[in-house]
Amino acid sequence: MTTEKYRIGIDTGGTFTDGVLINELTGEIQITKVPSTPDDPSRGFLNAAARLLREASVEPKQVSYVVHGTTVATNAIIEGNIARTGFITTEGFRDMLEIARQIRPSLYDLQFEKPRPLVPRYLCFGVPERLNALGEVIAPLDEDAVRIVALKLKDEGVEAVSVCLLHSYANQDHEQRIGKILHEVMPDVAISLSSEIVPEFREYFRASTAVVNSSIRPIVDRYLGSIEERLRADGLEAELLVMQSNGGVYTFEAARERPVYMVESGPAAGVIAASYVAEAIGEFNVLSFDMGGTTTKVALIQDGEPKITKEYEVGATAGADTGAGRGSGYPIKTPVIDLVEIGAGGGSIAWVDPGGVLRVGPRSAGAVPGPACYGQGGTEPTITDANLILGRLNPDYFLGGEVLLHIEQAEKAIMSRCAEPLGLTLLEAANGIVEIANSAMVNALRLISVQRGFDPRDFVLVGFGGAGPVHATKLAMDTDVPLTIIPMSPGITSALGLLVTDLKHENSRTRINRVANSVPREVEAILDELEALGRGALEKEGVLESEMDFERHADVRYVGQSYELSVELAAGTITQATLDGVTADYHVAHEQAYGHNAPEEPVEFVNMRVTGRGKIARPNLKKVARGKGSDGAIKETRDVYFSESGGLVSTPIFDRYRLGEGDLIAGPAIVEEVDSTTVIHPGTSAKIDMVGNLLIRSV
Question: What is the structure's pLDDT at 315?
Fold first, then answer.
């Protein structure tokens, strides 16, 4: 008899660590949710993995692969828990990291201070050498000076070194030579060369990316190494993969070399899961809405592909309503799914400012002490406390009853911190907290759609995360999104996303040249070289040629512009017709992004990109039984507050596990399951599809 094989996905969040185990043959899913362990995130990971295997009675040898989504890289930057790092650049540019950019996240904030450089100035060094923009040597590399710098860094006890020379994207020779000298002098130090990490122009962005990679390499190396050691000791021989920020996965080995590619690992998994859930019912234009305990992340998926950005900042401050401001973090040039992240999660704290205005977030109660209703010593009111007071959460069935919520603690926190200072009743204050949070999340959805040139009415909303289904229906109503999809086990949907994506490697190269003057065979040669790099990485990971796929894009702009847009290159041999298509597609992309274009202006290439994808078979979701009518799934009724109804309404409470395909639910209603609660507002109704999704529409 064939031994059944399983896949494990584990997503470590700020409050909970989510785990999902899928039977590759049947699609049956086992889920778990354990508290995160901020002092050592690997403990939360291992606790989740062990619990999944134990509860499903699965032997470690039956697991084919494990995929991990983690915030350990980002947290290391935010918390300043980074390796002691040195920086080497071209002589005269030592202060590159200090100068950074002359921008600020809030234009009129005179008190704003730029993020402190990840490398202190005394560990930054310039060495004599110089290339021009074509990669031609103007001044040769002074190798003796490099050795002197290497010895100084060794004496300083650095754990990592990053190297970024001017124009090294056009010629890697000097950086490569510096890397070899550093290895000779400091063989145990992690070295990141900007020409290997991101060979693109704009030296500060390239330097920042290399420095981020260097500073977190030792931390990520130890973290992933400890997980791998423990799993192997327990007899788990599966392939170990990590989610990348671009929505693909790569091996533990690759992640330990280039951790900068995994800074938004966890949120990216959620976006991939949202795409997977929607595609299963034939929807390819999606707004992904992921609300956890600490933050809310929203993303846009068009034609089944998440939007990718190259303008991301690690450690940027997430505001309560506008997302992260440019200039408040450390920019990286690696591909990241285009997310708007705000400080509004279930644990976000409500407070009254000195002007007597009720505010929510961005501060969070986190995992410890958590919301006041957790009974772990928290005294400040949160969104979770407000939803409990409004009757939307069941105090006896939070996490399936594993966590009992203390309604009296929530009442005390909201009354003392919000209701009494504002002269409101308990219910008015709780509703105010939820409405303010909803307003912030609606703004985030509009930022990712309307301000990117997309109409939210052309999309469906996939709501997930532990707190997402509580708010998703109202957000869809406020943004005129016609359909809301709540997948089964929405609290662990991000973990599911880890198991339905592909291996992915992106390689890029700067090539600034007018499209009209470009020679097709020269463009093809660059793309072939980048494809070969991706093919080599996939072959190293054991991917068969038949399972490889390559996508080609170019970053394009009007001549004289400072920034560019990505345009996909048609498959096949590059011809003049291909280049003409690039120009035409760019005019369309510019019109969509900015509301206008200039067809009479010349267009130029900036960067060439090739993404190599190693296809991984996706598991099929398990189908639910045919429904027998939703009335049989009603557990009880209780009073729930809905502002559109003007107060408390007697509301049926449904057990999601007793609902079947075709069952209908008219709002107002509450649907409960172990890892989340779905609120169906008055004026909407839900239908259960063949895999158990709740499909919610306005009536």
Answer: 74
Does 569 share its domain with 670? no
Q: SS3 of 537, please?
A: helix
Residue with tokens 């040039």: 333
- How confident is the model over 46-91, as pLDDT tens digits? 999 999 999 999 999 999 889 999 888 888 887 788 999 999 999 9
**β-bridge mates for residue 463, sequence order:** 289
In angstroms, the CA 514 to CA 606 distance is: 9
Q: In what order do the strands lie in the sheet with 647-655?
A: 634-642, 647-655, 669-673, 676-680
Q: What is the number of structural domains in the chain?
A: 4
For residue 649, the enclosing domain spans: 633-698
What sign has the CA pseudo-torsion 636, 638, 642, 646? positive
Instruction: Show Cβ contacts of residue 583 under 8 Å, excluding neighbours closer than 6 positions.
Output: 515, 516, 603
**Cα(348)–Cα(111) distance, rounded to whole angstroms?**
25
SS3 state of residue 444: helix
What's the DSSP call for residue 402?
T
For 692, the 3-state DSSP assignment is coil
More confident residue, 215 or 343: 215
3-state helix, strand, coil in the chain (%, to 5): 35, 30, 35
Q: What value does the mean pLDDT of the chain take? A: 91
Note whether residue 676 is domain-resident. Answer: yes
Cα torsion 118, 122, 124, 127 to 10°: value is 180
Q: Identify the helix (H) or strand (E) that includes residue 125.
A: strand 124-127
pLDDT of residue 1 exceeding 60, the answer is: no
Does 602 share its domain with 533? yes
Per the document, the length of the chain is: 699
Give the domain CATH number at 520.
3.30.1490
Task: Let me know whether 645 and 543 are in one domain.
Answer: no
> What is the pLDDT, as a whole number, of residue 325?
58
Look at residue 521 and tell me if it is in a domain: yes
Average pLDDT over residues 608-623: 86
Q: Retrieve residue 589's tokens.
A: 């992309």
Cα angle for residues 514, 517, 518 (degrees, 5° grid): 85
DSSP states along 237-292: --EEEEE-TTS-EEEHHHHHH-GGGGTTHHHHHHHHHHHHHHHTTT--SEEEEEE-
| CB contact at 8 A, 593 and 519 | no
Residue 658's Cβ-count burial label (10 Å; 0-12, 13-18, 19+) is middle
Cross-strand partners of 163: 88, 193
Indicate if 426 and 352 belong to the same structural domain: yes
Burial of 172 (0-12, 13-18, 19+ CB in 10 A): middle
CA-angle at 400, arms to 395 and 406, nearest 5°: 20
pLDDT, one tens digit per residue, over 174-185 is: 999 999 999 999
Q: Cα separation of 466 and 470, whole Å?
A: 8
Question: What is the SS3 assignment for 455?
Answer: coil
The answer to the question of residue 269 being in a domain is: no
For residue 246, is it within any domain? no
Q: Are residues 567 and 656 in the same domain?
A: no
Tokens of 281: 């019912």
